Structure formats: structure tokens, C-alpha cells
Description:
alpha/beta; 15% strand; globular
Amino acid sequence: MLGLFVHSEPIEHPPALAAYPQPAIIGHRGAPGHAPENTIYGFERALELGADVLEMDIWMTGDEKVVVMHDRTVDRTTDGSGPVAEHSWDEIRELDAGHYYRTGPVGDYPYRDRDITVPSLREVFERFPDVPILIEVKPNSPEAAVAVADLIREFDRADNTVVASFHRRPTTALREHAPEIATGASRREASRFMALSIARLTAFYRPAYEALIVPERTRRFHVTSPPVRRAAGLRGLKLLVWTVNHPAQIRRLLEQGVDGIVTDYPDRVLREAEAMGLR
């Protein structure tokens, strides 16, 4: 059975994750606790608040441009409506990406009509050339993953950009198309690794990915349990946990020695890290 999970040849891991500090503070879609998500303004705010890495999501427009947005549709975060894939890039760039951002459950909308737009991935690379970036490919599309890889190559960013997806098809396509780019485990790969870790069966496992980007708990596993952390360390995998916002949870994960925390509030993680002497 173990042979089903073992690659016949060792995999040479790209160096991108070496750019991550230990522990890395990863701004989840920027800093949505303080600013509109997945926007240039939000990414700048995240860096101001202590983020080391910018995490973001991508979709493809109808004219095959890679845009930074979490949802399949533009409805939740902009003044537009409909799927991203049914809009052109020219249409997407006219939307107000701060339209629905509120300061609280009954707060006002301080970012409306402030020229905060949906960025393309190209614009993000241009604005933040030296900042480590973690990209999640949202569509279950090999073409989207290849488009992301081509942009990473164009901007010569393989040394500080990691790409992940919940889906198998995009991650497989990206690894075949651009093996120099570091990837995160797909949902299935992460579940498999955790199961093998708990069973102490990772000794000969050679993962095709460089990072486990996971919630602290799943229905079946406590992801940061000692066997998983130990196995990840022995396999050279970075363990990055999302989405962590409560100070007590942040403290617990830092004490456990996770490699990075994905958060809506980079300032909270920085504060806890400083209090523990990790910064």
C-alpha cells in the first residue's frame, strides 16, 4: 500500500519558501480586517501592519486576463454582478472594489468611491516586485494555473512566489509546465499527507509540493499535532496555517512552531510574535 504514495525519484524543491521569515506573517487577501481584500490598497496596508507575505486569489476574465479576486463572482466585494469569467478585463477594472467594505456589522462604507479597483496579477507583480507572494488558483482550470506560471516566469519571480490550489488539475498542470515554481499541496494531497503522518508512514514519501497550507483543524485531523509537524519538518515542508485571527490561537500556533500564519490581521500576529521574542 505504501508504494501507492511514493514517488520513484526524489523531487528537487524550488527555493521560493526560503524567502519566508520564520514564522512568516501572511496577509490573507491583504489585511481584510483593516482594508478591502485583494486590492493594491489592502496589500499595502498589510505590509504596513507587519505582513511578510501577501496571500491572494486569482480568477480568469472572459478575455483570459488573470485578476486578483477570491469569489467566482464580483457581487460580494464590488458594485458589479456576475461571474468574473463573464466579464472582460476592461469591465472588471472599472468596478469599485471598496464598495461593500464595512467598518463593522452596522458600520459605514469608508472605501466607496475612492478609486480602489480589482487588480490584475500583473499589476500586483509590478507594484510589489520584492515581496514574497502566495497565490491560490481558485478555478479548477489547468489553463489558469499555466497563465499564472507564465506571469511568474515573465517577472522572474520563481524565487519568491508560491502557488497553491484546492484542486488537483491546476496543481498538476503547473508542476508539469513550470517545475521551478514552488507549490502547495492540493486538498487531496494534504489529507493524504496527514493520514500518512498519523500512521507514521512518511519515511519514504516524496511530496510533489513544498508547503502544506491548511486550517488548524479538519474533520479528521488536528493539523498541527506533533506527528504532522514532525513529518512535515522531516520532509522539508513548510506548515502554513489559515485563517487565524484570535490572539490566543495565534499564540498557541506560534508556541507549536508553525512556519507561518495566514491572517486577516497581520498586526495581531506581529504583536504576539514580538511578545514571544520571535521578532
